[in-house]
Amino acid sequence: MRCPPGFLLCSLLLVAPHCTEVAAEEVQPDPKTPCANWMGGAPGYPGHNGLPGRDGKDGQDGLKGEKGDKGVQGPKGDQGEKGSPGQDGPRGFPGQPGQKGESVFVYRSAFSVGLTERAPPPNVPIRFSKIFYNEQSHYDTSTGKFLCNIPGTYYFAYHLTVYLMDVKVSLYKKDKAVIFTYDQFQKNNVDQASSSVLLHLSTGDEVWLQVYGEEGKNGIYADNINDSIFMGFLLYPDLD
């Protein structure tokens, strides 16, 4: 049913005062909120990301932490280059004189000989012709004398088998008797006569052994089971 326009206008004028009273009794909307108590519109699109803010100020240092465990030892590094030589140090004081050393040259002189004939003649050098050692040939078997080639201190000794007669012998140095040995023979027995001595010799000195006195004092004996020997060797050479 279609109403005439005049009727609608009159109705609105009559209703308007009543709506105003009712609306006055209701809670008024917050004027800051648009479209309050009204149906909201469609949600809008998300806005664009804002620009990054500025870096903030550095914070305060924290407390010092505890000491950590010792780490594993690393591999040995390469050897560095040799440095340049340092400056020479100050000259030291002279040292004490050293002890006198021995000569590099080894001095040798020795002999050991035995008797091959019985009852050698008295008052002449006894010729020991059985050679045990005479590498330097300082003992002369043809004369029975030892010739000093190296000056120094020598040791001489003799061990004589005594049989059938008494024995009187002496050791000579440069035509002078140095020591004497006497042994009295006992019948049906074999005895020994021996002695030794240290002598200092100069180059050219001679040393030998001989029977002294009469014929009946030369009971020096030797055979295939008994020896009478004469020996000597250098102890200390004169290094000066």
CATH topology of the domain at 110-237: Jelly Rolls
Share of helical residues: under 10%
Describe the sheet with the most strands.
10 strands, antiparallel
Label the overall shape. Answer: rod-shaped
Task: Identify low-pLDDT runs.
Answer: 15-25
Output the structural class. mainly beta
Number of helices: 1
* Total E-strand runs: 10
CATH class of the domain at 110-237: Mainly Beta
Distance between the termini: 169 Å
Q: How much is the radius of gyration in Å? A: 69 Å
Written as H for each helix and E for each strand, in order along the chain, the element string is: HEEEEEEEEEE
CATH architecture of the domain at 110-237: Sandwich
What fraction of residues sit in β-strands?
25-35%
Mean pLDDT: 82
Domain C1q: 104-240
Signal peptide: 1-24
GO cellular component, one term: collagen trimer
Subcellular location: Secreted
Describe the structure.
- With 240 residues, the protein is mainly beta.
- The chain has a domain at 110-237: Sandwich (Jelly Rolls), CATH 2.60.120.40.
- Helix content is 9%, strand content 31%.
- It is built from one helix and ten strands.
- Mean pLDDT is 82; it is low at 15-25.
Give a concise summary:
The chain is mainly beta.
Keywords:
Jelly Rolls; rod-shaped; 31% strand; ten-stranded antiparallel beta sheet; mainly beta; 240 residues
Which helices and strands occur, and which strands form pairs?
Blueprint: H1 5-25, E1 110-114, E2 130-133, E3 139-140, E4 145-147, E5 152-173, E6 176-183, E7 191-201, E8 206-211, E9 218-221, E10 229-237
Antiparallel strand pairs: 1-2, 1-10, 3-4, 4-8, 5-6, 5-7, 5-8, 5-9, 5-10
